[in-house]
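Input structure tokens:
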């Protein structure tokens, strides 16, 4: 395979546009994309026609507006290029209008009440900052999805708005530092994706995996990840073949999948792309998840993207690496070489610190889901408390600034910290801390809380908007300042003083940190129903409205959708569990205990005075467990039924967490206990031991 030819071969990217579009059209389109403007109809029509010809050459027959409704996955509705003409023939057609805007009867996508109060229809609008691509026989056009009043019904619209807000405010700051050439500031993102690969044949025997993506039952195997022998271990040939094909498929789509390695848990792996704009990274991550699932099936695997497919071994996350870059190529979180650059770096750095401290709640909400709740706070993933890791060196620098004291850099060169001599910041001094929710890693922040199955859109919407909001405040102060340098230093020092409580360099998994965080007054929101009500706090509505990212109404709708989604996920899990327990587990235990009882009886018939401690004990144990299982299943069923009597989505979510989920856990304990004493061959589906050993 020729990598250079393969990469992006199915993408209508800048190179293709330059080659195929008339010079003038290309120039206008390019500027529209680079500067984030609206496209005019004439240009759209030329682009559409060129795009169609290109797509047909590549074998496409259909096109679709590819969008990301609030289900968190992607949606598409395919139309063919074919257009009948008078006299019975047909031509291949694709107009500018069809490219730019689509109508969608979207009434079955979640809208949190938005669409019922407005028009029932939605429309999709081309996002020219994300390139069109071909999937199978279909030209996919990345689009935003809105209601007729312009209300965002998707994950892309707010992301684009937040990128605009960040760009606008960051440019104000850059202008003060003399960077008048910067036209755009771009949020850059590189998401590292974790996943499990298990044998498809085994997967298909388990309804829990099929319906819910995770095992609802399953006793721990004798060996899990205790020996740490999977992490970065050798790839099995079948897994390696899968990874190679995923890479190739993604490269064709212009996704720069880069590194793959084994992760901590057995059968767990990771894929990391090279970073790009937040918008493309989000689209690409969706394509990555989709591609992994499809290719896995081809190789006899099932790819599990759930945050916690197996109890007792690590879950999967998605590390969201985030920074800000100018269109002139400057990374705003890159510590500079000179004191002047450093003032600018420090200003952006403390902006992130302040934004994170002020909006801990929003960051927590951006990663809240029933699936991810299993992971956050277990000693494998960051806790549900937000904090920032800066590394010793950077923290020492900030501390010295705060106290106007001298700072000794690693090289032992003493630097006086004053207005004109902000310290030189040694490169690559950030140590590693794998336990922090948000770690500064040299020239970017790594947000480690997002779940493996979720869209990274929300996390980046919050990062972009919160930072934009803080930068706005800084810009207002600095634009009025007489002595810019002194004013910058003042802001840096004040921000450190007021927001340093959010910085923590120690072990985030420890119990002491939890106590310490509570003492510092940091938010601790362990579950989704704890976190979500913060979304509609006045301070959050005010910020999102100020930055034009969400209206209050849109936030309310998202609040409802997320609560509903949480309830739906737990209800589906409960129903699945009941189905498995009633139809598979209880019959299996009954059969097996009958076998044991029959064995005992026939032995006794043969030798009447024989003692049978083992058989009798087994029958007794199984019978007791069976009774408890059946009673717990009934209790779970009642709890599920009771949900319909609970009012308001928030109360329903709490019922799901405190009653249904609890009953599920209790039921699971009993079933897992029964599994431990039942013949493997009598158990109705493969257990953890088999699932977690890929051949
Ligand atoms: P590490 O090994 O320290 O985690 P890597 O260089 O492997 O760092 O990067 C991890 C991820 O971070 C990759 O997806 C990478 O593309 C991404 N990344 C690197 N620089 C940036 C940046 N400036 N903005 C956003 N993401 C970045
Ligand atoms: Mg990393």
């Amino acid at each position: 395979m020729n990598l250079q030819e393969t990469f992006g071969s199915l993408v209508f990217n800048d190179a293709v546009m330059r080659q195929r579009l008339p010079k003038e059209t290309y120039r206008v389109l390019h500027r529209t994309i680079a500067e984030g403007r609206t496209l005019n109809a004439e240009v759209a029509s030329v682009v559409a026609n060129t795009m169609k010809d290109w797509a047909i050459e590549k074998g496409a027959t259909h096109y679709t507006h590819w969008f990301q409704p609030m289900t968190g996955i992607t949606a598409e509705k395919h139309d063919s290029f074919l257009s009948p003409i008078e006299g019975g023939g047909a031509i291949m057609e694709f107009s500018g209008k069809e490219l730019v805007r689509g109508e969608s009867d979207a009434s079955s996508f979640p809208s949190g009440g938005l669409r019922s109060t407005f028009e029932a229809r939605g429309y999709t609008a081309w996002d020219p900052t994300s390139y069109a691509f071909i999937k199978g026989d279909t030209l996919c056009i990345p689009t935003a999805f809105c209601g007729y009043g312009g209300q965002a019904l998707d994950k892309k619209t707010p992301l684009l708005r937040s990128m605009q807000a960040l760009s606008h405010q960051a440019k104000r700051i850059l202008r003060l530092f003399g960077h008048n050439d910067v036209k755009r500031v771009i949020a850059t993102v590189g998401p590292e994706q974790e996943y499990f690969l298990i044998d498809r044949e085994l997967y298909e025997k388990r309804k829990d995996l099929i319906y819910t993506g995770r095992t609802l039952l399953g006793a721990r195997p004798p060996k899990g990840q205790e020996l740490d022998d999977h992490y970065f271990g050798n790839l099995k040939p079948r897994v390696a073949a899968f990874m190679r094909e995923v890479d190739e498929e993604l490269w064709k789509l212009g996704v720069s999948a880069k590194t793959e390695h084994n992760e901590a848990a057995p059968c767990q792996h990771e894929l990391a792309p090279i970073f790009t704009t937040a918008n493309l990274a989000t689209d690409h991550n969706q394509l990555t998840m989709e591609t992994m699932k499809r290719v896995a099936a081809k190789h006899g695997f099932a790819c599990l993207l759930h945050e916690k497919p197996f109890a007792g071994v690590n879950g999967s996350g998605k590390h969201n690496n985030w920074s800000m870059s100018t269109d002139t190529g400057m990374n705003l979180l890159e510590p500079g070489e000179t004191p002047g650059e450093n003032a600018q770096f420090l200003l952006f750095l403390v902006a992130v610190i302040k934004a994170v401290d002020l909006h801990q709640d929003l960051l927590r909400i951006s990663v809240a889901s029933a699936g991810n709740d299993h992971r956050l706070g277990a000693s494998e993933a960051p806790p549900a408390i937000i904090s920032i890791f800066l590394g010793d060196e950077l923290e020492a620098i900030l501390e010295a600034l705060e106290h106007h004291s001298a700072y000794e850099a690693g090289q032992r060169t003493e630097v006086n910290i004053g207005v004109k001599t902000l310290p030189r910041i040694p490169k690559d001094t950030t140590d590693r801390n794998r336990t922090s929710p948000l770690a500064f890693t040299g020239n970017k922040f790594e947000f480690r809380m997002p779940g493996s199955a979720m869209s990274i859109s929300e996390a980046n919407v919050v990062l972009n908007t919160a930072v934009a909001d803080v930068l706005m405040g800084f810009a207002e102060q600095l634009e009025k300042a007489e002595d810019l340098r002194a004013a910058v230093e003042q802001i840096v020092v004040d921000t450190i003083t007021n927001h340093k409580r959010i910085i923590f360099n120690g072990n985030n998994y420890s119990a002491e940190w939890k106590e310490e965080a509570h003492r510092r007054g940091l938010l601790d929101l362990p579950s989704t129903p704890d976190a979500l009500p913060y979304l509609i706090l006045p301070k959050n509505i005010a910020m999102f409205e100020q930055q034009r990212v969400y209206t209050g109404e849109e936030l309310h709708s998202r609040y409802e959708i997320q609560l509903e989604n949480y309830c739906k996920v737990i209800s589906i899990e409960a129903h699945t569990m009941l189905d498995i327990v009633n139809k598979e587990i209880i019959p299996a235990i009954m059969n097996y205990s009958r076998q044991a009882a029959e064995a005992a009886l026939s032995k006794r018939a043969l030798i009447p005075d024989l003692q049978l401690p083992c058989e009798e004990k087994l029958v007794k144990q199984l019978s007791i467990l069976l009774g408890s299982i059946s009673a717990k299943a009934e209790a779970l069923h009642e709890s599920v039924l009771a949900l319909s009597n609970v009012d308001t989505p928030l109360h329903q979510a709490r019922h799901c967490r405190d009653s249904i989920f609890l009953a599920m856990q209790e039921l699971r304990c009993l079933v897992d206990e029964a599994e431990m004493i039942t013949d493997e061959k009598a158990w109705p589906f493969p257990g953890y031991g088999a699932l977690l050993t890929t051949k």
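Residues 410-421 have pLDDT under 50 and may be disordered. Residues 192, 319, 446 surround magnesium ion (ligand 2) (CB under 6 Å).
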